[in-house]
Structure formats: C-alpha cells, structure tokens
Amino acid sequence: MDNVKISWFWLSVLILCFSLYAHPSLGADKITSNQSLSGDQTIVSACGIFRLGFFKPSNSSNYYVGMWYNKVSVQTIVWVANRDTPVSDTTAAKLTISGGNLVLFNESQMPVWSTNLNSASSSSVEAVLLDSGNLVLRQDTSSEFLWQSFDHPTHTWLPGGKLKLDTRTKQPNYLTSWKNSENPAPGLFSLELDPKETTSYLILWNKSQQYWSSGRWNGQIFSEVPEMMGNRLYNTTFVSDSNESYFTYNMYNTSIMSRFVMDVSGKIKQFIWSEASEQWTLIWSQPRRQCEVYDLCGAFGSCDENSLTFCNCLTGFEPKLQNDWNLNDYSGGCQRKTQLQCESSNPSSGKNDRFLAMSNMKLPQHSQSVGVGNAGECETTCLSNCSCTAYAYDSNGCSIWSGDLLNLQQSSQDDSSGKTLYLKLAASEFSDSKGNKRIVIGIVVGAVVVVGVLLAIFVFPMLRRRRRKKATGLEGTLMVFGYRDLRNATKNFSEKLGRGGFGSVFKGTLPDSSVIAVKKLESVGQGEKQFRAEVITIGTVQHVNLVRLRGFCSEGTKKLLVYDYMPNSSLDSHLFRQKNPNVLDWELRYQIALGTARGLNYLHDKCRDCIIHCDIKPENILLDADFRPKVADFGMAKLVGRDFSRVLTNMRGTRGYLAPEWLSGLAITSKADVYSYGMMLFELVSGRRNSELSEDGQVKFFPALAANIVSQGGDVVSVLDPRLNGNADIEELTRMIKVASWCTQDEEAHRPAMGQVVQMLEGVLDVNLPPVPRALQIFVHNQQNRVFFTDSNSAQSQAISNISSSSSKS
User: Fold this and answer.
1) What's this model's pTM, rounded to 2 decimal places?
2) Is-catalytic flag, 512?
3) Is 60 exceeded by the pLDDT of residue 396?
4) Active-site option among 615, 633, 673, 721
C-alpha cells in the first residue's frame, strides 16, 4: 500500500511539472496556437539563455514585448517587438498566435504589432524562442522558419544574427538606436549595409546623413577598422547571393556573451559580459570621438569632447526638452531664452540684437557666402536679416547661417582649424556696463576698503604660511603645487607635448629653471583625500626606468601631475614618424627593450604592492637625454578609478596592445602587461605599427610575419626596420622576436614574467623556439612544444607548469 502511495506521489509530481512547463510563464520556450502571453508570463529558451515577455523601462508607464538575457543579473534588452506602439495594461494585453501570425493585442484588444505573414492555418503555427536569441515562427511539423526576429533586429546585433541588404530591392534592414535609455522607440542613429557598396557598413543620422563608414571588407577586416586584425573573440563571415547580402559573426568561445549595439550616443558599441564584475564591458566602439556623431546635440547645441556631458546649449539658449537631456537624448536641441528684437511684435521698442563671439569653433555646415568688403559689412548683413542666426568672417570672406545651427563643435586647443563664430542674441543677454557704471563704482570703492582690512588681518598671514608650506614643500616625497603656479610655469598651458587617454601634457619651467612636464588629468574618480593618498603612493615608486613624479596639484576639480621632462619625447615619435631624422640604431632599440622590461619588472615584483600598468605601448615609453627608456603613466588605473576601462577603450591604437583576457572581460594580472610589452617589441623590430595597410589595400600584420620567419628559421633581417639597412646583431634580433612571440601567447600562463623577460634579453636564459600564438595561425599553422626558455647554466628545460608556479607572485 505504501508503495502505491509513493508511486501516485511521483506521478502527481510528474504531471504537475509537465503542466508547469507547458505554461508559458514557467519555462516553456514556445507559444502555440492555444496559448497566449500576458502579464508577468514569459517564455525561456531551451537552455535558459534568453527570456521573452513584457517589460517596462525605468521611469516609464509603458510596456513592451521584448527579449533579454535570462542569466545576466542586469536586465539587458536585445530585441523589442512593439517599439512604436507600447501598451499600458499587460494583464489585458496579450501576445498570441492569430491568423497564422504572432500578434500583440493591446488592452483594448486592438492589434498593435504583428509578424505580418500570409500564412496557412494558425492552428499549426508556433512561435519558438531559440538559445541564439532568435524568435522564430514556424509550422510545428517543419524546420523551416516562416519568420524570424534575426531578420528584424532592433538596436542589438547578436552572434549568429545578420544585418543584411535585399539585393533585389536594395533595401537594407537597420540596427536603430533607442530614442533614449527609457524609450525603445527608434532613435535618430542607425547602422546599415551600404546599398551602393554592399561590403561596407554606414552609420546614418535620421537615415539620411552618413557620418561613419567601416570601409570595404577585404575578406579579413573592414579597411577602416584595422584593429579587427587582432580580434580573438569572434569570426566574421560575408554571404551574398541573388536574394540578399549580409554579414554574420560568431564567438570562438560560445560561453562568452557578447552583443553589438547601435547606442543612443550615436556610436556602435560591442560589449561582453563579465560575470566577475557583473557588468557589461565595452571592448570596441566607433566612431572614436563622440563629437564625430552628426548633430549629436541638436539645434543650437555644441559638442565638446572635454565636457562631462559632451553636449551644452550655446550662450543664450536652454534645452528645449530638459527631461530628454537628462536622459542623454539631445536631439531636441536648444531654444532661445530671450526672443530676438527683430522677431518681437513691436521691434521698435527694444534694443538692437547683438553678436556673441565664440572662438575656436568648427563652423557648422550649410553656410551662405556673401560678397562684402569687411567684417563690419558682414555683421551688418546678418543683423539686417532676421532669419540670419550667425556669421563668420575670415580670409575666405563672409559666411552667414540662417535658421537652426546644427552640428556645432568646440575645437580642441591645439586644433588650428577652429574659427570664430558670431552668434546673434537678444541685447538683454549681454551685461550692459554703461547703465550700471555709477552703482558699480560705488560698490567697488566700498568693497575695496573692506577687503583691504580683511586681507591685512586674516588673508595675508594665511598666504604667508601657505607659501612657507609650499617652499618647504613636501607631502610625503612630493612637492605640492598650486594651480596658479603651474599655470604660470606652463605659460597658461600653451606648449602642448601630447595627449593621452588620461589628459593632455604640457611643457613648463619652474622658477629654478628646471623643465617639467605637467599632465592635466581628466575623468578622475576619487575624492580629495583618496587622490592624494594614491598620488603619494605613486611618488614612492622610484626606478631608473620609470618616469619620476615630482609633485602634484589638487584644487577642487583641478588635478595635475608634475613629472621630469623627457627631452627625446616618446618612443612612438622615433619609430613611426618615417621622416624623423633621428633613427634609433639597433643598439639603442635593444637597450630600450631591456630598460623597459626592467622598469615593468620593478612595478610587478619589487614594489610593496604589484602595480599593473594596463597600457604599455610606445606612446607611454619616454626617452631621456641619453635615450634611456622611462615607463610613464604607471599607477593611473587607481587614479581614474571606475572610468579606466572607458579611457582605454577610447584611446586610439590602444586596443592593438590589449591581452585576450582583457578583451574577454576576465580578471587582469601582470601578464596583461607582458602581452602589451611583446606587441611593442615587434614594433621595435619593424619600426612600424603592427597592423598597417599596404599600397594594394591589404592589411599587413607584422607579428604574423615575424613569428613565421622565426619558426621556420628564415632570414630575420628581412623583417628589420629598413631604415637600419640591415645593421643589427642577428643573435639579439632573433632573441627579441622570440621573446616577443612568448610574451604574446594566447594563454597568460604561457607567457613569461617580466623578471624572466629581463633575464632572456640579458642572455642569462636561452630562449627556446616559441609556438605561434593561435591568433597568428590565421597566417601560420605551426604547433610546437610549449617550453619557452632553457637555463643556460644548467641546460635543463623547464616546462610551462613550473614557470607558471614560479611566477605566481605576479
């Protein structure tokens, strides 16, 4: 009897599980003809990767049918059905099979979205959510898809999906941004396959104005995206037939979740999910500069790369839709705070409109040339035309603009192309000193007396104490500078030495005639106390192959670092500027490689805490008067805090030096620096960037060529910088290429520690023949034993497992 009860129990459980799985809110992967999805019900793909159901964006009262990752802690929408037609009541709305289509009915039972197929009987049609993120409609007896969401992407392109062009109608499908973070309605920015040149992608504003192109596909990469050559995450395939042309991509490691997004910022971005940090990591974006996005800031808005929000309204204007601006949707642009005098109903009663000079601007498009003799006549022409909103006068003559000003940009300080734009404003937008002159004089005289007394009693003694503190000077081992002192030392930051991801660097001279380099930091994420603590920690790091930090300035948002000046600039200026008369000879190059390795070894193993640089490249190797290498920008990861990944992603060229584990979102160790150092060694050998386009449009990837020659015992001199005319120590040249190949191994455990790199370059350790990294096997297929050095004293080979354990400290 007990056995019978137990059997009935398990049978009941089985029936219950079956009924639960059949219910679309509890794990089923499909909607059949007798089911519908409403309220909180969802369907989940077979392996639980994606989920489909109703969702509501934050701070919104609208509901949409969408798809998101089921196993990602942050809800990330990848597809939306009813972007233009939200519903307000999900308990009354339903997604169901009707008339052979998948149809969404709103709370009034009116259809607001459909797959729009002329199908057969709806009783045999079902909608299935696949583990690829593809929602498909099919006959339940057929494997053919009647409809699939991969043919109708919204803002996200998933692996396995396709962004295509109908080759018969020349109609593309688009990847279109959301309007803003809270509204999935189609925004202004879209990505499409070029209808005229079907092997390149374009980003468009309003599906009309192109502002970025990928360049043509050459079978391996897009010509304007050379960093694809170092890609280890995914492979890209191009397909073209009489019906359609499209690209698709798939991850090499299918366990990595990746998505390609047309972002509300107007950029295309690729992310991978990091389980460790529980966040999406940006690994690539285009265009590189935010202000390259066409009309990002709307009418009378100006884009500034150095501004925290990028977009700001011009003087005299305010956001037309403030709520949208708060959501980083600037498309509504700006409106005047005060109506122009020429637009008022009684123009004779007001003061004349005036012009505000806006210097260093990139002039907007669609100007009208006017034939006048001088700047005064140009101003008069614009002032007499009420529709004229701005003018400019230069050596090319007079240009005026009518109506809205679009695509305004603030030029950087070192951009000589900046012009002065004169913006028409109402007279009330200008402070009129004449009307208030007497009042101001009286106030000023009284204030001067009061201030003089206060200065004598309180401020002057405090300033004397402050000067004494600066003169004695030190916080830890660093000099604390005032912002005004550094501004004077750099002549108002007039001589720019360069710009990196962390800010611009300027040359300066202190009162004692010593020359300094001043870095103005951007994107600093720390408070005052933490910033000082981190800077002082960096200041204690001293090594002959590290740039010496002399002091710092921290006054509110103004954060500056003061370094020793390096008269021979950075390594990239000697390697990549082919017209530079100072060609580094081989002996110098080898010493630069060795000195850099010693500096990194000190950071990794000799400091109290291991310091991972995270951005080793020729631009960050400076050369002193004797061409001795100095590693710069170490310790910056802690200074910029959470914004560090964004800084790296946005820096031109940096991605070519990033280790595979960085791109995969895994935890970063000192072996990431080893990889970057190896990529830099290849460039020391060739004197050129690792990836570059040849005259016939093909991409040359130097590490592949060098690795192939070394692995086959070829002529290593053939890969040497031609400016050296073959003058190099062959043994050292071969050694350097071998070390570079070991440093760039795919798995970090297969790379040597920097201490071992130093010993290899010094000749203490003999370097064994390295295997060609998998990423290079696109060009070279060569598998060899993974042992990367032999101790020249004991002549005993050491396996990778032993090396990994001995270098675990790093």
Assistant:
1) 0.57
2) no
3) yes
4) 615
